[in-house]
Amino acid sequence: MSEPVAPAAPDSPDVDPRLLEILVCPVTHGPLEYDRAKAELVSRGARLAYPIRDGVPIMLPEEARELGDGE
User: Fold this and answer.
1) Could you tell me which residues come within 8 angstroms of residue 60 by beta carbon, excluding any fewer than 6 positions away?
2) By 3-state DSSP, what share of the chain in percent is helix, strand and coil, each rounded to 5?
3) 11-40 burial by CB neighbour count: b if 16+ within 10 A, else e?
4) Count of CB atoms within 10 A of residue 5's CB?
5) Where on the phi/psi map is residue 53: left (φ > 0), alpha (ψ -120 to 50), or beta?
6) I need a labelling partner for 21 at 20 to 30 A (CA). Which of 2, 34, 39, 62 fits?
7) Which of 36, 49, 44, 45 is nearest to 9 (CA)?
8) Roughly how many angstroms between the first and final C-alpha of the chain, as a whole number?
9) H/E stretch holding 65
10) What Å distances lie between residue 22 and 9, 10, 18, 19, 71, CA to CA?
11) For 57-69, what is the mean pLDDT?
12) Mean per-residue pLDDT for 38-43?
């Protein structure tokens, strides 16, 4: 059974949980973490955060934000 999905922040549409289960980082092919507050998918291995715009993950490395030291 899948975990319940909490409501998204009002300014960021929710992402389909089934989509989150199958997406991987295009750089490392490793897992991604969903940061609902920042509307990003985070790849710890690549140290990149991929934006989610209008509910659609933008999985292009050139569109990703590099993670800072504290992230």
Assistant:
1) 26, 50
2) 15, 25, 65
3) ebeebeeeeeeebebeeeeeebebeeeebb
4) 13
5) beta
6) 62
7) 36
8) 30
9) strand 65-66
10) 22, 25, 7, 5, 23
11) 96
12) 96
Would you say 37 and 9 are in contact if contact means Cβ atoms under 8 Å apart? yes
Provide, rounded to the nearest whole percent, the portion of the chain with pLDDT above 90. Answer: 63
Residue 5 is encoded by which pair of tokens? 């999905």
- Please give the share of the chain, as a percent, with pLDDT higher than 70: 82
Identify the DSSP state of 5.
Answer: P
CB 31 within 8 A of CB 46: no
Q: Nearest-CA neighbor of 27 among 12, 14, 42? A: 42
Token output for 35: 């940061």
Q: Please give the pLDDT value at position 19.
A: 87
